[in-house]
Amino acid sequence: MHDNDEGSLSNGISHSQAYAEEEEEEKKMMHNLSRQTGFDLRSMIRTIKETKSYDTEQRREIVRLLSKQIHLALEYQTTMAKRRRCCSFYRHYLCALYFCTKLAYLLNVTGQFYLLNIFLSFSFSKLGIDWLNNRHSSSADTSETFDTAPFPRVVLCDFMIRQLGSNNHCVRRLYVKRYLQIANRYGIKSDLRNDKYMLDQFVYDYLKFDGVIVIKILGKNTNDVVMTELIAAMFDKYLQVRTRQIETTTSSGYRGDDQI
């Protein structure tokens, strides 16, 4: 009995390690392909994870550099899309790559179901239905029905646990304070319609799909406080770009009036 338990435990460990290695390889593939758009996701994720151990001033400096890196990558995408028509896909390259990676996950899982049906020589997809039928059947012996090598009773479950310091409580006041600072700085509470317009412009015209994907990936690797500072820094960059565009349009309009 102990030999079977040890064999099941070793099989569970090997499957867990294989899954972790496969997931790491898929992440490397996406990170390497994302460099073509100017987004070095591996470097960004590593940098934003390190901000948890920094003090406030160091964290703000790192966030400022991250926002500058994202801003330059977004400008690079826009420039490449404007120069050549064949490069217009650069605006949504990272977004398409992200969904293709998720599609690869789905195809991988579906393929594993078919492979299990082949190797186990029975319909693995109907295993749950068969188990319920045997469970409710009075003639079937349900005690030893699924006590087989492919489905051992003792397995290793890989799951996440809570650690001291991982949970942040009572941060609502901090969010309110941060929101009031941003509201006081940009006049958010003055005109809600203008705010919605600027928010749409910030998301759809400045960040675009690739920028939103990058923000989402970085948000999964850090806390809400760092992401709030990063989005605020990105909004600063957007306001600077918008101000330059308005100044350029105004100056070109004045020149046209002078020529007339």
TrEMBL record:
Keyword Protein transport part of the UniProt annotation: no
Keyword Transmembrane carried by entry: yes
Topological relation to the membrane, as annotated: Multi-pass membrane protein
Localization in the cell: Cell membrane
UniProt keyword annotations, A-Z: Cell membrane, Ion channel, Ion transport, Membrane, Transmembrane, Transmembrane helix, Transport
One Gene Ontology term, aspect cellular component: plasma membrane
Ranges where the record places region Disordered: 1-27
Superkingdom of the organism of origin: Eukaryota
Residue ranges, compositional bias (Polar residues): 7-17
GO biological process, one term: monoatomic ion transmembrane transport
One Pfam entry name: Innexin
Residues passing through the membrane, by range: 89-107
Protein name per its UniProtKB record: Uncharacterized protein
